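Extended Data, record PDZ domain-containing protein
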Amino acid sequence: MTASEGQILGWQLSSSDNEFPVTVSKIRSSGLVALHNQKHPEAKIMNGDVIVKANSVLWRQNSTAFLEGLAEEFSRASATGGEITFFLRRPVGVRGESEPAETRPFFKEFSAKLPMDSGDGPGWQLSADNATGRVSIAKIRSTGSVHAWNEANPLDEIQVGDVIAKVNNVLWHGDPKVFLNHMNSQIEAARKGQSQKGVTLLLQRPWRLDGSFGGGTGADDGDDVVGGGEDDTTGAEE
């Protein structure tokens, strides 16, 4: 977008927490964003889109600092008549501002390949929801392959509350214990060098009840914890 003095972007941004990216919550009928949408209907910016970069300013798990950097970039571009470029990601299910958030299946779906060749485990604790049987991440430690992935991939960070839908070629099928047994076998084989050097996860980030996104804090929410002991080696706790 080409900015000029006196113009506004014409959107409202929101962030529920510093650890969650900045989201477009409202687009006004005037401003650079509305003009962009008129000129580029095939690449419209929509409510629910997530902003991960503005020019050279990258979101790094601190939304307050990111918003300050975005404002500085826009002010600089407005003063010089320069360009401001945004990199956005569209969560699965975002189709338009009239669609209620609760009708979308989940906020985000992404893959993560966790290396296991060093012998380290994932460094997580998993839990199974009593109602749905879905296996989700209840805790992430400061060591392990999940932590290493997060350090290297801040835009696809694995978070507490993320649901594991697939591990390598093993799909979740409704029974958490059977799924965990298969997943543990895949992890152990990778750790021992008996198969590929890592495991690939397909993760889904659910919406919160209020329509926002992201997981919890890792505190006990009453769900059954699968392999929850601190010294457990089943794979639910590493």
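Summary. The two ends are 47 Å apart (CA to CA).
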